[in-house]
Structures are given as structure tokens and as C-alpha cells.
Amino acid sequence: SSAADIISTVEFNHSGELLATGDKGGRVVIFQQEQENKTQSHSRGEYNVYSTFQSHEPEFDYLKSLEIEEKINKIRWLPQKNAAQFLLSTNDKTIKLWKISERDKRPEGYNLKEEDGRYRDPTTVTTLRVPVFRPMDLMVEASPRRIFANAHTYHINSISINSDYETYLSADDLRINLWHLEITDRSFNIVDIKPANMEELTEVITAAEFHPNSCNTFVYSSSKGTIRLCDMRASALCDRHSKLFEEPEDPSNRSFFSEIISSISDVKFSHSGRYMMTRDYLSVKIWDLNMENRPVETYQVHEYLRSKLCSLYENDCIFDKFECCWNGSDSIVMTGSYNNFFRMFDRNTKRDITLEASRENNKPRTVLKPRKVCASGKRKKDEISVDSLDFNKKILHTAWHPKENIIAVATTNNLYIFQDKMN
Amino acid sequence: QEKETVTPERAEEAKLKAKYPNLGQKPGGSDFLMKRLQKWQKYFDSGDYNMAKAKMKNKQLPSAGPDKNLVTGDHIPTPQDLPQRKSSLVTSKLAG
């Protein structure tokens, strides 16, 4: 399959009934969960393709001789207000609001038109009839309702819909903008970290998200491993944070790699809004919003990579941006790794598990076998040594159903949907 | 006599510095950040190229060094530096 099929984002909607994926080719594919089958009570409905459309096209900035990639960086769903579904999708430069609607009936019996659309000669009409709606095969249509363009000089890395359901933010490397969903010709700049002299640039914005309940609060993470929480009530431009979350570093441990591996690739609030989770190159950290000086929990994703940093720097893997997600009850967190492995951490039991998303190593409808990486020394029978890991097989994007134990895991160009065993 | 244990990270750093002795000695903003901000491919601009050639009739054109992807004011992209153009769009394989 082609490079365009590389999956670049995965997101469940608020009910979990729909699952959207975006790819490098600028396309969105939406899957819908089947209604539960009463005779098959041992499994939940499967996800089938519901709609697919081209969200973004490649563009060329003639003034600067730069190509703008059509790759979809993020998709975020709006909560459902009526029969139609709405989502925001973004590439590096432009955010679009898409309406996805169903059509299952069509009008028939026009007086002046034939069924195939040709116009009838009015002089041949002798009687009048009332057109009626008749059922038709379900058609799912996607149409762009708003295009939010020209507000970002740098690459958009995040979009986040506010809990007021009227506004949303978009963040690039140096700036964050606030938009109203109805207004496309204006946005407010709420964070600007661009230095007057670019030679003084020391950090960039890596991710941003609105608080799930407080519509005035958002956070953004940086390439230096810090998270800033901002309150929009404090001032129009939130360059000064309300809170700064940063774990103190042990200066004796500092190396050339320290800053690179501390760069936060994703930040996600818990559903409760009390915690937030960050992902850096080697770990996942849970922060209590009331404690700025250190995370309350730290989970090692693949600590064995610490002694491979030299080669991971040379092959650029050290710059891979892994995402992370919470389950519906905030008790488990999940993130991806290499070799098509992904990891789950249970915050209550403190147990963790490594699973693999691959067709070769998993028979369908069987329980996934836990995997183990052998860091050094003698490798046990089912373990995989660090040197055998395939660093081209990376799981960067994962998503957890908002209510059930159903997860979506994206390998480079395949999507896996797993569910837990039901009795 | 104190035995200094080298952390795995420091050992990896030593490996890297042995391979690339000039690493981390560039003035100005961080290399990674600049690279990140200039992610988009830069195409060959014939105007720039010809003007640069005209200006430096007797000197050699600066060619892409090891930092090929880091486009600075001094480096004029040449046809050899350019990546291939994209292929045409088809339906995603996930859509069947």
C-alpha cells in the first residue's frame, strides 16, 4: 500500500458509535459500530466503514516555494446536536468543519421533472400530483461547512473543542489561536511564544487541549517537557501561565539527549478533569492539576531504549511523537511503542501489559498474548530482544472508546480494533 | 578510589560525540527546533538559483552540506536536492 495510507490520527466520537481515522493522503475514513446483535450476545457490534472523503488536498505556497502537506494531523468530533455528525479535521495549515449526514429517502413524483432529472415539456402536463419521499439505500454524505484558514504560520499540531461547544483552539509550534465555530474570517491569538529574535528560540509548543469542564482553562505542552495551564479570564493574551508543571531534573543525569527525550508529544486531560497525562519519549506521566512540581504517577513505556539513544537519534526515531489516551473511567492509560507493541497501565493495580497489533502473530477472535522485551542478558523463550525490535513498526496513535472497553490501535497503515472478552 | 558509574544515557552520548565531533557546537537557536519549524520541502527556485550563479561567477556555489534539510540563507537548493513529487490521490485502503 502507498505512503498515502499511513494513518496519522484516530478518534472516537462522544458516544463511541463512530471512529474516525485520518491519513497522510488527506483522507478521512469513518467507521460505525453495528447495532448489537441479540443472537451474538458474546460480542459487541463490529465497526464497518460508514463514510470516507477527501478532507485536505496538497497545496503549494508560491510565495515561499513551500509545499503544504495534506496529511491530517488531528480529528476532533463535536458532540451530536441533531441527526448530523460534525467533526473538525486539520492539516498543517487549515482546519475544516465537516458535516456528515445520512440520506435514506428521496423525493419522487415531480410534475416538471422526469425521474432521471430531465425536464418535462410543461405543455404535456395534464394532471398535477404531490411529490412524495420514498425510501432509498442509505447514503452518507460529507460536506465541508467551514474552512478556517490563514491563521497559522507554523505547523498546526493540535485542535481542541471547548466545553462551551462554541469555540475551539488550534495550536502550532509557536502560537495558539481561539476560534468560534461559526466564524472563519477571524481568530484570537491567545498564546504567542515567538521570540523577537529567532536566534533566541529555545522551545516550541507541542500539544494543547481545553479542560473538559472549565471553558476558560486550557493547557499546552512544550519541547522542554513543561506544561502550562492558562486561564482565559486572566487576560486576553495568555502568555503568562497560571500554573507551570515541571518535574525537576537531576543535573548529574543531564546528557545531550535529555531535552530531546523530555519533549512532550501529547497531553490529555482525564475525563474527570482532575488529572492530565503527558507522553514523552520514554514515559507516560500523570499530573494532578493541584500539584505543579512533579507528576503523581510515572509509567515507563520502554525504558530499555535508554541505552539505544545514540542509534535512535541517528535514525530519527528519537523524534517520533507518540500519543496517549485514557479509558472511560480514567483507571487505565494506553500508549504505543515500537515493533507494533502498545502498552496499558492500570493506575489502581499498578499492573501493566504489552500487547502486539499484528495479523501474523494473533489469530482473530483469540485473546491477545502479552509480550515481553528482554532488555539484556539471557532471553527467555517468548521474549523479544531489544535488538530484534522493528523500529519502522511504530504505534503512534491509539484511542479508547469513551464508555466501553473497545480500543482502536493504528499501526503504520492498518487499523486494529480490539475489545475485551465479554462473558 | 571513587569509581564513576556512567549512566546509559551518558554512555550513548559519548558514542554519539565520537561519531559526530561537531555536534552541539552550532551558534544560535537549537538545530532540532529550526529543523522542525522548516519541515516543509523547499522547492527549487530558478530565480534564486540563477541570481546566485550570476553573483558568484568565479566562486563555487555553496552546496548542501551534512545539514541538507536545514535550509539557511546561504544554501540554494539545487535540482539534485529535491525529493520526488507526490503520486496522484486514490481511495484509502481502509475504505476497502
UniProtKB/TrEMBL annotation, chain A:
The keyword Repeat appears for this protein: yes
Gene3D superfamilies: YVTN repeat-like/Quinoprotein amine dehydrogenase (2.130.10.10)
Molecular function GO labels: protein phosphatase regulator activity
Family the UniProt entry places it in: Belongs to the phosphatase 2A regulatory subunit B family.
Keywords assigned by UniProt, alphabetized: Repeat, WD repeat
Species whose genome carries this gene: Antrostomus carolinensis
Keyword Membrane: no
Full protein name: Serine/threonine-protein phosphatase 2A 55 kDa regulatory subunit B
Gene Ontology annotations for the cellular component aspect, listed alphabetically: protein phosphatase type 2A complex
PANTHER family in UniProt: PROTEIN PHOSPHATASE PP2A REGULATORY SUBUNIT B (PTHR11871)
Source organism phylogeny: Eukaryota, Metazoa, Chordata, Craniata, Vertebrata
UniProt xrefs under SUPFAM superfamilies: WD40 repeat-like (SSF50978)
From TrEMBL, chain B:
A GO biological-process term: cell division
Keyword Coiled coil: no
Pfam families, sorted: Endosulfine
One GO cellular component, as annotated: cytoplasm
Record's subcellular location: Cytoplasm
Keywords, comma-separated and alphabetical: Cell cycle, Cell division, Cytoplasm, Mitosis, Phosphoprotein, Protein phosphatase inhibitor
Sequence ranges of Polar residues compositional bias: 85-96
Coiled-coil features, chain-numbered ranges: none
Transmembrane segments: none
Record carries keyword Phosphoprotein: yes
Biased composition (Basic and acidic residues): 1-16
Stretches for region Disordered: 1-30, 57-96
InterPro entries per the UniProt record, alphabetical: Endosulphine
GO terms for MF: protein phosphatase inhibitor activity
Entry's family note: Belongs to the endosulfine family.
Physiological role: Protein phosphatase inhibitor that specifically inhibits protein phosphatase 2A (PP2A) during mitosis.
Protein known as: Alpha-endosulfine
